[in-house]
């Protein structure tokens, strides 16, 4: 067995340096990951490993590196959340309903990382259709937190976070609708970035809520997050909502130690259910930043009580429509009890979807129904606009907004509350940036007394990823005791 | 059905609104680059977008927008500058995404009007409610297998314009005239082939009846699957009578969706209002709203072809054609184009009109062809007309002998052909006088009759002159000479 420490890289730059100096062969690195994935299979992070392919890619890319023709992600071994289409590979969104479905085309993000010579090593577990905050809604079972295997990974990109946390790959791609990158990143002590809405193409991403979904990196360093974003971001003809905004070379713009003006939301520190250690932790970060000469001030955000409800009304509405295509007719799971069209729909969907997905489809169907549309969907759209305006207003005066990523650290597996609304409140700090479409990153901010990772969220300005990342790098290098 | 009297029928009036789906003849589909063509092998024009695969996203075909603006401008609609799409959610096997992308509250065209001409020559303006853009569903085929249905998704995503009239059509006849006008228009604009039988235009009719003078609308029924103009008219006429009968019998009309069976000519319920879907419309989050600039609309307006009504005005006022001719010629764009092309090379517009409506049209009808298939260039017809004009060709010879020859030898020069066929009129005065003299000598009795006042015998003389000259004379000239000769014999 290969010693873990030998291959415990925290960023691509170090891997590339070792390969260039001849200390490391890419195939050995891939072999290390493959062995380690097998050893730690119990974490349930991977749904499928593309072993032979990854080794073949490693060989090819090692040659390219030797010839000096490799792309900028050469040496980066990544995993894909199981809602990202990769041609010729299974895609299930951790659901039974996509049983047997093999993608016939690749998502734009996959094409872009492959074009820069990243190696895709496997498919990562997640909550079913990215709906959940603990990875426990996956048809393929929960993912264990590597910091404490009795704890959840967080979700929905649980597999993506744990794979990076447990060194089962260098980086992963997740997707974030209301916190699905940031929350598991916080639970697992890794870096998770949700880009500005429209920054990254959604083409080939199994849709949950179209006006919220964004793909983003989960990494062990801010540098790798910047590099991955730089590769996957940018206008895509196949996603007409993707932005034409030019993509800066984020990875080259990371050195900026200027003094910043930062807001933190007063209400978040008094919100019900906020873990005292997390409160302490965030207060300590505020002090730390102040001691470094940054301005950190409280601001009021009177809509905090509405963000979760607004988020769930709008995302479930979109989901109820986005998930209509999983009907047992054209692809995926079809119930054996199907007799005709109606029974095909009823049985295939009843048997193919899990409880949480069904709950959200029903909720979304309800809020769009005749007679309820104005009271729910329409009103939630209006509140979304208010939240967006208010958040942007704060960001006119401040560079960033700072919050804890989550109200609690990773909780026990199987502890999922019987009242789903209590579970939904776990998203309270992350859904704001999703509603506003703003970029937000979760950075490790230490651990609690039990050694569980804690995360701090920084929300940036629209398309302000360069600034957000440079500040993140600066913060991550601060001595947090 | 009991037969109800004309008197009872006359107590009522019908209120009809039509929804017409115009399938656009764009190259690619509404929201992806798959071919939108008709008649390909099943499930060949499909990509992840048409298939509704996980992660597939739509992008808008600009040609659909352009077609909608064209039609909107043609019917004087207000063009909506800010457009977005909505999702109409329902489950069906040939709707792979589980929703149809359409426009709900903000159609691209609002209002507008279409002038219809009724068989008695009178006209009526039918106001339009809206035109909106949407995508078509695929096709379910239920009769290929006893157990299973087959699905062809080639049509899934093909762009449609739904043209919705105000409920101000009052008979099957008016509905037929409306569809005829609309079909003519989309063909002129070259945005749809207008073939109802192939499904390029599909019509649903909303029909209700009420006592004349009543202001409240009656309960309406929607008749679907109307695949020809004739069937629309038949279905409406059937439905009006059916509804009046029910009311007369004191039965409340149920607000149903009905199917029209073209074989039996009757309507049967498809689903009741209680079974109606709640479509849960909401704005399509995968497509950005589209703003149409003033310049964009002006550019389309500037490139618009002449429309049938404008051509009728031009033909009657500038070219002095009778209104009848103008309407017949403009009924088809290809016919109007052909007529105009003839008049580019000849002065006599009426003669051009006669040729188009007469020999050319009957030839094409016989062959089952349309004007766009006609192999003879318009300037050849102009050349024939000009030969007749200058007296070098007899009009009947032109139609009966030269025209078939021109069709046969479409590449040959008309004048050469006429010469080859020996059709060019001999302007040798002596020869003509010889024919006349011979004729008069042949029928001395008839000459006497003429002198006694029976001018009708001139026809007989002309017939004989034509016969012996084999038609190669200028009838006008021959007629004049004949009269002067016969007068001189008095």
Protein model, in words:
With 481 residues, chain A is of the alpha/beta class. Chain A has helices at 12-20, 26-39, 51-67, 108-115, 158-165, 182-188, 222-232, 266-269, 276-291, 304-322, 341-352, 355-368, 374-397, 420-424, 431-436, 465-476; strands at 46-49, 77-81, 119-124, 144-145, 148-152, 171-176, 191-194, 214-219, 261-265, 295-299, 400-404, 440-447, 453-459. In chain A, the strands form 2 sheets. Chain A has an 11-stranded mixed β-sheet, with helices on both faces. A two-stranded antiparallel ribbon of chain A has the order 4-5. Chain B has 490 residues and is an alpha+beta fold. Helix content of chain B is 41%, strand content 19%. Chain B is built from 17 helices and 17 strands. Chain B has helices at residues 6-9, 48-51, 62-74, 172-188, 229-248, 294-302, 308-318, 323-330, 333-344, 349-367, 378-389, 395-408, 414-420, 429-442, 444-451, 457-469, 475-488, and strands spanning 12-23, 78-79, 82-83, 86-89, 99-102, 109-110, 113-117, 123-135, 139-141, 150-152, 159-165, 201-211, 221-226, 256-261, 266-272, 282-283, 290-291. The model of chain B has no long low-confidence stretch (mean pLDDT 92). Classes of the chains: A alpha/beta (481), B alpha+beta (490). Chains A and B meet through helix 10 of A and loops of B.
- Beta-strand percentage of chain A? 5-15%
Q: What's the total count of β strands of chain B?
A: 17
Ranges of chain B with pLDDT <50 over ≥5 residues? none
Given the structure, what is the number of helices of chain A?
Answer: 16
The parts of chain A where pLDDT drops under 50 for at least 5 residues are none
Question: Rounded to an integer, what's the Rg of chain B over CA atoms?
Answer: 30 Å
How would you classify the quaternary structure?
heterodimer
Distance between the termini of chain A: 34 Å
Principal-axes geometry of chain A comes out as globular
């Amino acid at each position: 067995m290969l010693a873990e420490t030998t291959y415990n890289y925290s960023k691509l730059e170090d891997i590339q340096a070792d390969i260039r100096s001849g200390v490391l062969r890419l195939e050995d690195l891939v072999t290390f990951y493959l062995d380690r994935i097998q050893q730690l299979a119990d974490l349930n992070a991977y749904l499928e490993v593309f072993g032979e392919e990854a080794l073949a890619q490693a060989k090819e890319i090692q040659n390219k590196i030797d010839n000096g023709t490799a792309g900028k992600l050469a040496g980066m071994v990544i995993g894909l959340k199981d809602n990202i289409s990769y041609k010729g590979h299974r895609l299930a969104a951790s659901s039974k309903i996509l049983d047997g479905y093999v993608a016939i085309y690749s998502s734009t993000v996959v094409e872009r990382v492959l074009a820069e010579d990243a190696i895709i090593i496997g498919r990562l577990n997640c909550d079913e259709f990215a709906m959940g905050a603990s990875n426990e809604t996956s048809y393929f079972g929960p993912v264990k937190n590597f910091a404490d295997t009795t704890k959840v990974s967080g979700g929905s990109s649980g597999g993506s976070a744990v794979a990076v946390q447990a060194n089962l790959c260098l980086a992963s791609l997740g997707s974030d609708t209301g916190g699905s990158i940031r929350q598991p990143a916080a639970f697992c002590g890794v870096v998770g970035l949700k880009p500005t809405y429209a920054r990254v193409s959604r083409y080939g991403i199994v849709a949950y809520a179209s006006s919220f979904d964004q793909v983003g990196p989960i990494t062990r360093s801010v540098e790798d997050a910047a590099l991955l974003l730089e590769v996957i971001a940018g206008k895509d003809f196949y996603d007409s909502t993707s932005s034409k905004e030019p993509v800066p070379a984020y990875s080259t713009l990371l050195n900026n130690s200027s003094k910043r003006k930062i807001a933190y939301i007063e209400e978040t520190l008094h919100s019900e259910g906020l873990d005292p250690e997390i409160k302490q932790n965030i207060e300590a970060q505020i002090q730390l930043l102040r001691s470094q000469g940054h301005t950190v001030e409280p601001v009021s955000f009177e809509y905090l009580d509405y963000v979760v409800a607004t988020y769930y009304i709008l995302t479930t509405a979109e989901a109820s429509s986005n998930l209509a295509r999983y009907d047992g007719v054209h692809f995926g799971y079809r119930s054996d009890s199907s007799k005709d069209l109606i029974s095909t729909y009823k049985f295939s969907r009843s048997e193919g979807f899990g409880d949480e997905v069904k709950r959200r489809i029903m909720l979304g169907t309800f809020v769009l129904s005749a007679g309820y549309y104005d009271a729910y969907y329409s009103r939630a759209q209006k509140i979304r606009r208010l939240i967006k305006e208010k958040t942007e207003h704060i960001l006119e005066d401040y560079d960033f907004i700072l919050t804890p990523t989550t109200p609690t650290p990773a909780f026990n597996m199987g502890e999922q509350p019987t009242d789903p609304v209590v579970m939904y409140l776990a998203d309270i700090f992350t859904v704001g940036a999703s509603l506003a479409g703003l970029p937000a990153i979760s950075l490790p901010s230490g651990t609690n007394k039990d050694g569980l990772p804690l995360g701090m969220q920084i929300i940036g300005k629209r398309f302000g990823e360069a600034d957000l990342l440079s500040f993140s790098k600066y913060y991550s290098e601060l001595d947090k005791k | 059905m009991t037969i109800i009297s004309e008197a009872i029928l006359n107590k009522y009036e019908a209120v009809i609104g039509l929804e017409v789906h115009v399938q656009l003849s764009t190259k690619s589909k509404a929201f992806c680059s798959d071919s939108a063509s008709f008649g390909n092998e099943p499930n060949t024009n499909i990509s992840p977008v048409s298939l509704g695969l996980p992660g597939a996203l739509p992008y808008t075909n600009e040609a659909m927008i352009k077609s909608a603006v064209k039609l909107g401008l043609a019917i004087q609609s207000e063009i909506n500058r800010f457009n977005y799409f909505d999702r109409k959610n329902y489950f069906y096997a040939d709707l792979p995404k589980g929703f149809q992308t359409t426009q709900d509250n903000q159609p691209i065209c609002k209002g507008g009007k279409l002038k219809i001409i009724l068989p008695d020559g009178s006209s009526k303006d039918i106001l339009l409610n809206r035109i909106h853009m949407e995508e078509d569903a695929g096709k379910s085929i239920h009769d290929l297998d006893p157990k299973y249905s087959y699905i062809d998704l080639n049509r899934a995503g093909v762009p449609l314009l739904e043209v919705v009239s105000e409920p101000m059509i009052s008979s099957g006849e008016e509905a037929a005239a409306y569809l005829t006008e609309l079909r003519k228009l989309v063909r002129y604009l070259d945005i749809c082939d207008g073939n109802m039988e192939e499904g390029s235009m599909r019509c649903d009719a909303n029909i209700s009846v009420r006592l004349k003078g009543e202001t409240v609308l009656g309960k309406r029924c929607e008749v679907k699957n109307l695949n020809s103009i004739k069937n629309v008219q038949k279905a409406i006429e059937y439905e009006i009578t059916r509804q009046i009968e029910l009311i007369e019998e004191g039965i409340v009309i149920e607000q149903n969706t009905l199917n029209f069976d073209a074989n039996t000519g009757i309507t049967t319920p498809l689903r009741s209002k209680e079974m109606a879907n709640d479509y849960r419309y909401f704005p399509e989050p995968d497509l950005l709203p589209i703003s149409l600039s003033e310049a964009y609309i002006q550019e389309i307006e500037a490139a618009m072809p002449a429309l049938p009504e404008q051509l009728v005005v031009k033909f009657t006022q500038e070219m002095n054609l009778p209104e009848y001719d103008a309407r017949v010629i403009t009924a088809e764009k290809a016919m109007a184009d052909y007529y105009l092309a003839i008049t580019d090379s000849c002065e006599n517009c009426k003669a051009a009109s006669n040729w188009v409506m007469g020999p050319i049209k009957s030839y094409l009808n016989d062959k089952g062809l349309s004007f766009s298939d006609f192999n003879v260039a318009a300037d050849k017809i102009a050349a024939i007309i000009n030969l007749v004009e200058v007296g070098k060709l007899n009009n009947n010879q032109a139609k009966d002998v030269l025209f078939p020859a021109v069709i046969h030898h479409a590449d040959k020069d008309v004048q050469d052909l006429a010469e080859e066929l020996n059709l060019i009129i001999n302007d040798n005065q002596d020869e003509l006088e010889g024919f006349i003299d011979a004729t008069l000598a042949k029928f001395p009795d008839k000459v006497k009759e003429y002198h006694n006042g029976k001018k009708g015998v001139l026809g007989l003389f002309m017939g004989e002159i034509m016969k012996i000259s084999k038609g190669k004379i200028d009838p006008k000239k021959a007629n004049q000479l004949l009269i002067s000769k016969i007068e001189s014999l008095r």
